[in-house]
Amino acid sequence: xxxxxxxxxxxxxxxxxxxxxxxxxxxxxxxxxxxxxxxxxxxxxxxxxxxxxxxxxxxxxxxxxxxxxxxxxxxxxxxxxxxxxxxxxxxxxxxxxxxxxxxxxxxxxxxxxxxxxxxxxxxxxxxxxxxxxxxxxxxxxxxxxxxxxxxxxxxxxxxxxxxxxxxxxxxxxxxxxxxxxxxxxxxxxxxxxxxxxxxxxxxxxxxxxxxxxxxxxxxxxxxxxxxxxxxxxxxxxxxxxxxxxxxxxxxxxxxxxxxxxxxxxxxxxxxxxxxxxxxxxxxxxxxxxxxxxxxxxxxxxxxxxxxxxxxxxxxxxxxxxxxxxxxxxxxxxxxxxxxxxxxxxxxxxxxxxxxxxxxxxxxxxxx
Length: 367
Hints:
three-stranded parallel sheet; 13 helices; elongated
């Protein structure tokens, strides 16, 4: 696989840029895709940009007017038609950027760059907690990726850990080329810090919301009630949000459901939070980590390779342990934590004798 070191304009003066993303409409993929499209509206490298998009992806009218856009319905038949159309329309002088984690299903004449960011497709990550329809789709797409990845001239990922996984599992070289939407403070008035902690994430199982809430329960049992904002949509994650609501009520937790936020709303929410907490079990990149860092928000995160690929957190924890998460929060809050005092073997024996005597006395008293 060759290196992607040639500027786009040098591929062919008459070539087009084709962006194929018929399956991207939410989450980090949407954020990156919109950022890319915005950058293309001010770029002069391409005479024509043709973008194939999921019809559910909403774009600003001014942005949509500057690009040639083909909309695809979120159905299997529509996706297959889009693949067939791509195979027929792509020319040798074109550059095809497959932004939806999958290579072309049918052979194309264009040079192909695959942007791969879905961890589920690369490795056999357990999917039992996912809905049956989603599990079926992932299995089909895994086969699709493995069978046709060698049609790509270049595979691009966003972190060294993802690069290692792709090269090991798929047997192809990958180039690390991370990018973000350029979120920075725009000089507006900084909002009041109304949240102690913020978790920007959708509701997939690997995002680890349940252990995060269990950590908040552990904190409550010790008398600490920090506020926590979650970007979950009850309409999309009904079961998870219902479970969180029950735990919130039972333990008097300070949990705020923020719903799905726009890019501008997310930035204001970052700035209105004292820290970002990020307990995800795995990520191909972890976009919120980079966004929070760019805005100067302290980060508490899982002790995982994907985290240190992009940022240095102020606190880390074992994401599979609610106690570890809670302890990291307490450290960040400046709460002193003491380990049990060590004792000698002789003191240990005395403790056993004292315990036995106490138990015997209580037994006699209760007769």
